[in-house]
């Protein structure tokens, strides 16, 4: 595992900014389990397909899980097909694409980690490229070797080739070196892209550094308290209803928000320079005028936020 420490350190150092260190760590651990327990190169004409499936399909699954586990995904899609908003289609589509892009940037960390660690390991790439049906590639890795190398290249991962042990090891070393170079290229690209996006997001931040820290702390506290209050209020309502049902008595009054109120606090937050609200719930509480708390006007624009504020609607994923 020593050869993966550098990769994990890169992602762990980004945890303060992206909170992705734990995701990258779990992904790297999962790749180790797959490569040692599940993966078995067939050493046949299926090598190329089999190796690429293990290299790319788990990454695709992790990407889809990233979308599924994102709270912002469900805030964006829940009720979207019944939304009666009069926002112009072009503006709505642009806002939709902007939010999807932010979700994707969060979700892509796990699949990128999988691919980077898998390439450094080299097992999947080695299996795939020994089955790559390209004469020029085979000649490249078999340079200086006998014709048996071209014929038995697909058998090398299983040690069944007719080549001498030293020639087999030389060819495998070339393929592993290619894999590891690609792995470091992926890691460097991820680190450079993360730094670039962070710099651009911070440069275009509408708030100062200290206010951004406060905003993050507020958002985390609101999400935690909201979940706790939701569970407690739901429990009280359930207990009241059960008590009324089994004891055959009139239910005691318990006030809960109506449908319009839930709709207004369930949307995606839109930043505005003209107010000082830290979330959609904060805005709702501050701008409601009547007792029933349903008079706050709906936002007339889209729901895109500056990239530096993408954490506002993340919260905890609930289904």
UniProtKB/TrEMBL annotation:
The chain crosses the membrane at residues 50-69, 99-120, 181-201. The keyword Hydrolase does not apply. GO terms for molecular function: monoatomic cation channel activity. It comes from the Eukaryota. One of its GO terms (biological process) is ATP export. Keywords: Ion channel, Ion transport, Membrane, Transmembrane, Transmembrane helix, Transport. GO terms for cellular component: plasma membrane. It is a multi-pass membrane protein. It is found in: Membrane. PANTHER family: CALCIUM HOMEOSTASIS MODULATOR PROTEIN, CALCIUM HOMEOSTASIS MODULATOR PROTEIN 6. Belongs to the CALHM family. This is Calcium homeostasis modulator family member 6. It comes from Lepisosteus oculatus.
């Amino acid at each position: 595992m020593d050869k993966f420490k550098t990769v994990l350190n890169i992602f762990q150092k980004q945890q303060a900014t992206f909170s992705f260190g734990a995701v990258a760590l779990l992904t790297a651990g999962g790749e180790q389990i797959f490569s040692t327990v599940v993966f078995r190169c067939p050493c046949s004409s299926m090598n190329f397909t089999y190796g690429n499936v293990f290299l790319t399909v788990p990454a695709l699954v992790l990407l889809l899980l990233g979308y599924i586990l994102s709270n912002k995904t469900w805030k964006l899609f829940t009720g979207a097909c019944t939304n009666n908003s009069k926002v112009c289609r072009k503006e709505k589509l642009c806002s939709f694409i902007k939010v999807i892009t932010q979700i994707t940037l969060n979700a892509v960390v796990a699949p990128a980690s999988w691919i980077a660690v898998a390439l450094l390991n080299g097992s999947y790439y080695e299996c795939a490229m020994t089955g790559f049906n390209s004469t020029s590639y085979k000649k490249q890795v078999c340079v200086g070797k006998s014709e048996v190398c071209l014929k038995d290249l697909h058998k090398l991962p299983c040690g069944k080739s007719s080549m001498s042990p030293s020639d087999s090891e030389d060819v495998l070393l070339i393929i592993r070196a290619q894999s590891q170079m690609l792995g470091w290229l992926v890691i460097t690209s991820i680190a450079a892209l993360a730094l670039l996006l962070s710099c651009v997001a911070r440069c275009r931040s509408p708030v100062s550094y200290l206010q951004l820290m406060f905003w993050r702390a507020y958002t985390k506290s609101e999400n935690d308290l909201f979940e706790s209050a939701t569970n407690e209020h739901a429990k009280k309502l359930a207990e009241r209803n059960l008590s009324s049902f089994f004891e055959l008595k009139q239910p005691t009054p318990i006030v809960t928000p109506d449908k319009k109120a839930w709709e207004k606090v369930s949307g995606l937050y839109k930043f505005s320079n003209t107010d000082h609200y830290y979330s959609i719930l904060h805005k709702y509480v501050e701008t409601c005028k009547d007792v029933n708390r349903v008079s706050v006007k709906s936002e007339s624009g889209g729901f895109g936020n500056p990239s530096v504020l993408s954490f506002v609607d993340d919260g905890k994923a609930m289904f």
